[in-house]
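can u pls check wat happens w/ pyridoxal-5'-phosphate
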Amino acid sequence: MTPEEFRRHAHGFVDWMADYLASVGDLPVKAQVRPGEIAARLPLQAPQAGEQMATIFDDFRHIVMPGITHWQHPSFFAYFPANSSPPSVLAEMLMATLGVNGMLWQTSPAATELETRVMEWIRDMLGLPPTFSGVIQDTASTATLCALLTARERATGWRSNQEGLQGMSRFRVYASEETHSSIEKDVRIAGLGAANLRKIAVDEANAMRPQALAEAIEADRRAGHQPLAIIATSGSTANGAFDPLDAIADISAGNGLWLHVDAAWAGSAMILPEQRHLMRGAERADSFVFNPHKWLLTNFDCTAYLVRDVDALVRTFDIMRVYFDTKERGQAIDYRDWGIQLGRRFRALKLWFVIRSYGVAGLQALVRQHIAAAQAFAQAVRTEEDFELMAPAPLALVVFRYRPAGHPANDLDRLNSELAQRLNDGGQLYLTPGKARGAVTLRLSVGQSGTRSEHVERAWQLIRDTARTL
Ligand code: PLP
């Protein structure tokens, strides 16, 4: 494709993108296709000869688009959001055009230096102290794995990377019963063994019980195991629960453990000074992760990983070869040493575009707006006789269920599963069923870039109307 052909197609694509953003709210949120339906429309073999871009684009519209669930739909309330925004998309276009691999300072000094500055902005926006340094990772799963590997290396006197874990005592990792599945996956990958992840009991607000944590650590020590790390959750996926970080940090410090805070979703709310009390104690953690790609208008993927001890991080991941030995080594950051990947996308560019385009105040206003809309929804649930909240509903996550008067208690799970399915199949909104207090729930997560209070109010109306037809 010549640059002129590229220009022509790109202009056409941008027109399509702008139209999509303007009309995504009219599409069914969840893809309305059956398993295998898209694959059946794709040729079994790759084409031998190159095809026209117009033909490819046509297939994108007619084959791919029907199989898209619209995460940028303002009535997307499922999971946690994976936000996009026009400034972020524009930056992605530039990034894609530059095609930079920012593994070393030398391979694109601007990619490195912009990442450093933007992560300083992010740290300050969250109110974390300057003792934290940040690096962009692909996902929270990867960042937490980095934390576990660094904790493991530090605890073994930097031997486990060289010698493996054979002959070492059994390391134990602690997280609440609410912890995200990625933590268990990371514990497995770090070679620690899923059986050594101890799930600590939670209280009625689904938060880790510090007393139970202290007792588990003590019991492990008595049994000859080696407590290694605590993964505290700030904003759990199922119920939005916040572990008491200050009390956990005391236990962590008293036992010389690594404290990692998984704030994948809720970390974005720390840009609001009035919400920081939920994560009081985060400043005492060894590492902290949150996803601007969830709630901070930055396209997937963009995870902010903040650490207090950069030397420990670099010592864990640094590996030398002659082709990495640039003359600037030691004078500038080589982000390849700050995580698992060697090759790195220029993700800082989109975060920079987003922060500059909205300003901190603009981002704060949007997150506040989401929280207010979710809180109004939670209040409506509280006051409606046939519905009940199933968790405290902090920030912008509301966990609730339909419980019509007189309905047999043993049929409520079926009823709520059916309600979720009807709503999602209807295409007007998309939410995730969940489980809380042993019961099937509906989980409404407000945070999509385009979601405003009217979308949440409409969702409530639709949920009530649909429930009453069951
Ligand atoms: N931790 C929590 C609390 C989450 O909610 C999620 C995802 O929703 C993750 C970790 C994993 O995030 P990622 O997809 O960035 O790995």
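The longest strand covers residues 226-233.
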